[in-house]
Amino acid sequence: MATAAPASTASVAQELVTLCRAGRNMDAVEQLYSPKIVSVEPMGDENMPAEMTGLEAVKGKNKWWFDNNEVHSREVNGPFVGEGQFAVQYTYDTTFKPTGQRVTMTEMALYTVKDGKVVREQFYYNVPAERP
Amino acid sequence: MATAAPASTASVAQELVTLCRAGRNMDAVEQLYSPKIVSVEPMGDENMPAEMTGLEAVKGKNKWWFDNNEVHSREVNGPFVGEGQFAVQYTYDTTFKPTGQRVTMTEMALYTVKDGKVVREQFYYNVPAERP
Q1: Could you tell me the sign of the dihedral formed by the alpha carbons of A9, A13, A19, A25, in that order?
Q2: What is the phi/psi pair of residue B63, to 5°?
Q3: Residue A83: its pLDDT value, please?
Q4: Which of A43, A124, A127 is the mutation pick for testing B, counting most B CBs within 10 A?
């Protein structure tokens, strides 16, 4: 074959955490995500639905988040690797710029890899979404 | 050494998912958890604090949960294995017996292993805790 084999789940996982540790989340999306990426949050609203599909939508969500949050510190724990999926634990200490409210949030993300690309990301929270 | 080496994170992870797939969660706690287990939920109340310590408390929480929920189906996805930690995704379709309310919930658990025993479990939810 002229083309290289798709990257393994473990190597995609390692690349993703390396980029996210460096704050390069947008590069992770651009380099590692499938054009058909599906992104699932616990909750959505009319502007930001819980489930989004496609690279442009996910890049838009990421851009919105980084434009609106000042990140004081981040911790990226993992990856935790399974068969065709991997998980990462994130802890972010941020200030939401529009309100000035500072929060520390911990979440787990579960990623699904197909043909060397992330095709699904689903987020799980330890802090209730409603809590200030 | 006369005693066996502690079980690896990967083997503890595999044993835990095997028992939980069989609905033997209490056996998993008894066989795989440290006496000093720390269990962390997103939220607590005066009866069931968010953070519990010790095998008896965690067994009590599990017993309470299984006594009060009828499990229609369960899915145990994983394990996702890292260095000294592993994650598991659970989906439960349950009816809460006191109210008759049926819900499907998805969660991730992150387990920390030390000396071959689970010393910490922390739960992350995709469904907002307040949603009916």
Answers
A1: positive
A2: -60, -45
A3: 94
A4: A124
> Is pLDDT of A64 > 70?
yes
d(CA B9, CA A98) in angstroms, rounded, equals 43
| pLDDT exceeds 90 at position A125 | no
Percent of chain A, pLDDT > 70?
92
Distance of CA B97 to the CA centre of its chain: 20
Six-digit token string for A17: 């955490």
- Check A125 against B87: CB less than 8 A apart: no
Q: CA of B108: which chain A residue's CA is closest? A: A124
pLDDT for position B46 = 73
Name the interface residues of B facing A (CB cutoff 8 Å).
Answer: 40, 42-43, 77-82, 85-87, 89, 106-108, 110, 122-130
The pLDDT confidence band at residue B127, using thresholds 50, 70 and 90, is low
Q: Which residues are bridge partners to B102 per DSSP?
A: B95
- A122 neighbourhood in chain B, CB within 8 Å: 126
Note the pLDDT of residue A7.
84
Q: Could you tell me the CA-to-CA distances from B124 to A42, B21, B81, B91 in Å, in that order?
A: 11, 19, 17, 12
